[in-house]
Design brief:
Length: about 120
């Protein structure tokens, strides 16, 4: 009987130790599950943040495309205005030269002006 009691005591002790191990393991599992939940929440937040950043990047790419188009239109307009102004300046220069020649001819009718031209230049006197 004494041996049975001893075996019963040892069995109970083993059962107690096993239950303590099981409780400890369950506590660790519970902690790990809590950690998993926290990590899943952080993952969801990160995914939402990533989606917002991707949307923002797409919007900025659209804006860049619009700005490039606007810049191309402005460059085209600038070149057109530059050409028009160049033509106006050349026209004004030509008209001014013709007016000056007319005044010289009026003031000095005997001077031969046929050698003078808009694009000619006096070199060395």
């Amino acid at each position: 009987m004494s041996a049975l009691r001893q075996t019963d005591k040892e069995t109970k002790k083993l059962l107690f130790e096993n239950s303590q191990d099981t409780l400890s393991t369950h506590a660790k599992i519970l902690d790990l599950r809590k950690e998993v939940v926290v990590l899943q929440e952080k993952d969801e937040e990160s995914q939402a943040k990533l989606a917002r950043l991707e949307e923002r990047a797409t919007q900025q790419e659209v804006q860049i495309g619009q700005l490039k188009g606007e810049l191309a239109r402005k460059d085209e307009l600038f070149n057109q205005i530059k050409e028009e102004l160049t033509e106006d300046v050349v026209g004004a220069y030509g008209a001014g030269f013709e007016d000056a020649m007319a005044q010289v001819a009026c003031m000095h009718p005997r001077v031969d002006l046929c050698q003078m031209g808009l694009t000619k230049r006096v070199v060395d006197g």
